[in-house]
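Today's session is about reading a structure prediction critically. Students often jump straight to the picture, but the first step is always the sequence itself: look for stretches that repeat, for charged clusters, for runs of hydrophobic residues. Only then move on to the predicted structure, which in these notes is written as discrete structure tokens rather than atom positions. Here is the chain we will use throughout the hour.
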Amino acid sequence: MALRKRLTEEDENQLREWLGNPDAGFDLLFKASTQGYNAATFHQLCNNKGPTVTVAYNAAGWVFGGYASKPWTSCGNYLQAPDSFIFRLCNASKFDPLKLTSGNTGDCLYDDPNYGPAFGGGHDLLTFNGTHAANNGNFVTANGYANVGHSYGSGMGHDTNTFCGGNFNYLDIEVYSIGKRKKEEDDPKKKLPKLMPEGKDWRKLQWTDEERDRLKQQVGRYKPRPSLSVAQVNVLLVGQVGSGKSSFFNSINSIYKGRVSSQAMTGSQPHSLTTRYRTYEVRGERDGESLCFRLCDTMGLEDANTGLDLDDLPYLLDGNVPDRYQFNPAANISLATPGFRNVTSLKDRTHCVVLALDICNISVMPQGTMDKIKTIYNKALKRGIPTVVLLTKVDKACEHVADNLALVHRSTFILEKVEEISEKLGVPQYHIFPVQNYSRQSTLDSKIDILVLSALTQILGFADDYLDEHYEALAMENLAKLNVKE
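Below is the predicted structure for this chain, in token form.
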């Protein structure tokens, strides 16, 4: 089976610029996630292949690596290769290129048969050493480390944290030889995702200021069925670290505050910035009443035993957990948790679950993480709680959409991702909504607002469906009691 490379066109163009070779092509020689983090395999496939580029992908979304200007040969010594450099392409899923060159030509590369690609004395970057299995749906720690500043980037103020987030839990490591750019690669526009014809959008949405105002008013006027004594519906936000679940609340809050807001903590970190359970409310006006929904933010999902513990999820769904509860990796939620609600009613429970997923990571998401998300969906399903999927960062997934967000429902690539996650999770496609949150913007954008508000109106509608089920069940129960009395 042919190996599938992760390197994007944007990444390749940046490498071409650094190499000073606009015609450079990148041919995948070694892929650790498939072939294992095995030094012998690396050298078998990559020795004597000329200059190579090594690219590592870690659990926190950083992409980094090194260029070896001389071939690997398993000589067991340092190599003088003064044109070599190490680099960063992405900082926590954000394109943020950095190139660090060597001031010491004597130890640019360490070419040891027991090591994977190693750069610099110290080493500035040792990708892995020894033998470790392929990923099999999980991140892999393969004895990698970095000592940035020893041979590369000395005096530039960079260290391991700014280079790769200090994270050596790998999603993958790839090694490429450098050849001639293929003809189909000559015009990057040929690789752009296709657009459906104008007027043939796969989902209809109006992109006018009037539609934005209408959606804002619709959400502002929303009220749950009064006979159920539920003043606000509870929407539980769940997602991977960096997926944009907290940013979704910030985006909604921004719309009603009239400015870009960052009440919920967000940022680019390897671990979850959300460490407390927070039930956020949105006010229609600064000093006005809260709107009739709460967005309940949770700790981010992480690899292995870190992040949100799925054993805590039932208590979150059933409304037992108090606002501002501090998640504790050493102790699960229990009856002894301070503020724990022993008895809950319909108003306390979760009425809709929202899974926030980075659309750019769906195809490469480790199976272990996907299994966690499926578990969340199934636990909600067993309780009859509707689930919505937000596909975030659509502007990073499709260049057409990056240029014009109104093309999101004409992008065949975005549609393919909707279909892909629907198939993987079993969630109906009409429960899946591509969105863009506020991130780099400093002023409000009508198109971002329309996409976010249209998703929110559907979320509130599904929450209403859940309440209607309970209303009908309650009505049947009351009717049965009445018939018994008669």
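Discussion point for the tutorial: The CA atoms of residues 357 and 402 lie 18 Å apart.
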